[in-house]
C-alpha cells in the first residue's frame, strides 16, 4: 500500500517532497518476486503450491498475487468464454476452478498476449482472493489479502491524554493510550478497556479482517439520544506488530470528537 496509494511513489499523486520525477505513465506497474512459499486451496484441493509467485503493485490497488502457470494444478482448471480488457496489461482470458462438486467461476485470469510494456506478465496467472477457500504464506493461513512487504504497523506507548466525546458526553478518557501508525492510514489511538464507558457501548455483529492486525469486533455507541453504528472497534486477538493493541478500543466516526492533549 505504501507504493501504490497516495502519497506513495506508484500512486496517482506522488508526493511533492522529492527531488525527482518519474518519467512514465501515470498508471504504474511493478512486478516483484514473492520471497516465500505460497499456496491456495479450494474444495479441499491445493490449487497451487509455489515458491515462484510474484506481487503486482499497481497504482491505486492492493498488491495482486500472480502465480506461474506451471505451478497451478491444470486438472482443476476449466477455460471459459469470459474476457476482460485492461488498457495497461491487455486482454485477459479466464479459467474456472473445479474441485469435485465445488466450482469457482472465472476465478483465475491470465494475459495470453500482454501489452508490450507489461510483457513480463506472460506465463503468470492471477487469482481472485475471495474465490479460494484458504491461502497460506508458508504454513501460516492468511486472511483478508496478502501482506504487502512495503506495509508497516507500529504501536507505541503514549503519555498524551486522549478523550473521546459524542456531543457533550465523554465516551472514553485515558492518560495511557497506545498509538498505532499504519502505512497509508491515519494514526489511531487505542484506549484501555477500563478507561472506556462500557455502559454506552452495544456489541455489533460486524467483523472485519486485517491481515496485519487480525479480526476486529465492533460496537455501536449511544449517548444523548444519539446512536452511532460501528463507531468503535477492537482486535481481541491482535497479532504481529499490532499485538500490543489487544484489549484496547479505538474510535472512529465523523460525529465523534477525539481530543488529544499535551503529554505530562
Structure description:
It is a single chain. By secondary structure, this protein is mostly beta strands. The chain has 2 domains: 29-141, Metal Binding Protein, Guanine Nucleotide Exchange Factor, Chain A; 153-260, Domain of unknown function (DUF427) (Metal Binding Protein, Guanine Nucleotide Exchange Factor, Chain A, Beta Complex), CATH 2.170.150. Helix content is 0%, strand content 49%. It has strands at 29-33, 38-42, 45-50, 54-58, 64-68, 77-86, 90-99, 102-110, 124-127, 134-137, 140-141, 153-157, 162-166, 169-174, 178-182, 188-192, 201-210, 214-223, 226-234, 248-251, 256-260. The strands form 4 sheets. It has a 7-stranded antiparallel sheet, with no helix packed on it. Strand 6 and strand 7 (90-99) form a beta hairpin. The protein is globular and about 60 Å long. The chain starts with 28 loop residues before the first strand and ends with a strand. The model has no long low-confidence stretch (mean pLDDT 94).
Q: Give the CATH H-level superfamily of the largest domain.
A: Domain of unknown function (DUF427)
The CATH class label of the largest domain is Mainly Beta
Our estimate of the beta-strand percent is over 45%
SS class: mainly beta
Approximate helicity band = under 10%
Q: What are the low-pLDDT stretches, counting only 5+ consecutive residues below 50?
A: none
Q: Give the tally of structural domains.
A: 2
N-to-C SSE series?
EEEEEEEEEEEEEEEEEEEEE
Q: What would the average pLDDT be, to the nearest integer?
A: 94
Question: For the terminal residues, how far apart are their CA atoms?
Answer: 35 Å
**DSSP strand count:** 21
CATH fold node name of the largest domain? Metal Binding Protein, Guanine Nucleotide Exchange Factor, Chain A
- Please give the radius of gyration in angstroms: 22 Å
Q: Could you describe the largest sheet, including whether it forms a barrel?
A: 7 strands, antiparallel
Question: Based on the structure given, which CATH architecture of the largest domain is correct?
Answer: Beta Complex
Q: Count of helical segments?
A: 0
Strand arrangement, major sheet: 1-4-5-9-8-7-6
Amino acid at each position: 500500500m505504501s507504493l501504490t496509494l497516495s502519497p506513495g511513489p506508484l500512486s496517482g499523486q506522488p508526493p511533492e517532497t522529492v527531488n525527482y520525477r518519474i518519467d512514465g505513465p501515470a498508471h504504474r506497474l511493478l512486478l516483484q518476486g514473492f520471497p516465500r512459499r505460497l499456496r491456495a486451496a479450494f474444495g479441499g484441493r491445493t490449487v497451487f503450491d509455489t515458491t515462484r509467485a510474484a506481487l503486482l503493485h499497481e497504482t491505486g490497488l492492493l498488491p495482486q498475487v500472480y502465480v506461474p502457470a506451471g505451478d497451478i494444478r491444470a486438472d482443476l482448471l476449466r477455460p471459459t468464454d469470459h474476457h476482460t480488457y485492461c488498457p495497461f496489461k491487455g486482454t485477459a482470458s479466464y479459467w474456472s476452478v473445479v474441485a469435485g462438486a465445488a466450482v469457482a467461476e472465472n476465478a483465475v485470469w491470465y494475459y495470453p498476449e500482454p501489452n508490450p510494456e507489461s510483457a513480463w506478465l506472460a506465463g503468470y496467472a492471477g487469482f481472485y482472493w475471495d474465490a479460494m477457500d484458504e491461502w497460506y504464506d508458508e504454513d501460516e493461513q492468511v486472511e483478508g489479502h496478502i501482506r504487502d512487504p512495503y506495509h508497516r504497523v507500529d504501536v507505541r506507548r503514549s503519555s498524551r491524554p486522549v478523550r473521546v466525546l459524542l456531543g457533550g458526553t465523554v465516551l472514553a478518557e485515558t492518560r495511557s493510550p497506545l498509538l498505532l501508525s499504519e502505512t497509508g492510514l491515519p494514526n489511531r489511538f487505542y484506549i484501555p478497556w477500563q478507561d472506556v464507558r462500557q455502559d454506552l457501548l452495544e456489541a455489533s455483529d460486524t467483523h472485519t479482517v486485517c491481515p496485519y492486525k487480525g479480526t476486529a469486533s465492533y460496537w455501536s455507541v449511544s449517548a444523548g439520544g444519539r446512536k452511532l453504528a460501528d463507531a468503535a472497534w477492537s482486535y481481541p486477538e491482535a497479532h504481529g506488530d499490532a499485538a500490543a493493541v489487544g484489549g484496547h478500543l479505538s474510535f472512529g466516526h465523523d460525529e465523534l470528537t477525539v481530543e488529544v492533549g499535551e503529554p505530562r
